[in-house]
Q: What sequence folds into this?
């Protein structure tokens, strides 16, 4: 089997395609959550905290210097506000995934709980057995 046909067989398996679709949808979902946090959730939190913009919060370790255009020195800072935004995004994504998994588990439990009717041949054989048992 050639390398190309092996790769084609690998790439066309159901799990790989499902994973690819999941990654694409996950990326899009991540963008939605980022927008939700940055434009919907954080402005009211900033307003409640007195106009604090979390995304610009940072602890400057060494200030930048751009007084000399030939030798600009970049600022060195810990941007903990961006970390707070990312943490809130993670909590929202984790909660959304939890709710989806919970719903899937609930649906799968309903399917397992429903007793499956025996196949027609098994039901017929059971009926014949019961008739033979009751025969004198």
A:
């Amino acid at each position: 089997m050639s390398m190309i046909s092996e790769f084609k067989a690998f790439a066309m398996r159901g799990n790989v395609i499902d994973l690819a679709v999941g990654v694409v949808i996950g990326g899009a979902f991540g963008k939605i959550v980022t927008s939700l946090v940055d434009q919907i959730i954080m402005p009211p939190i900033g307003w409640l905290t007195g106009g604090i913009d979390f995304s610009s919060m940072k602890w400057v370790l060494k200030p930048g210097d751009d007084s000399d255009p030939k030798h600009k020195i970049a600022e060195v800072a810990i941007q903990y506000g961006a970390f707070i935004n990312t943490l809130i995004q993670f909590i929202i994504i984790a909660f959304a995934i939890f709710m989806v998994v919970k719903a899937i588990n609930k649906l799968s439990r309903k399917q397992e709980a429903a007793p499956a009717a025996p196949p027609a041949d098994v039901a017929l054989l059971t009926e014949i057995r019961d008739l033979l048992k009751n025969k004198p």
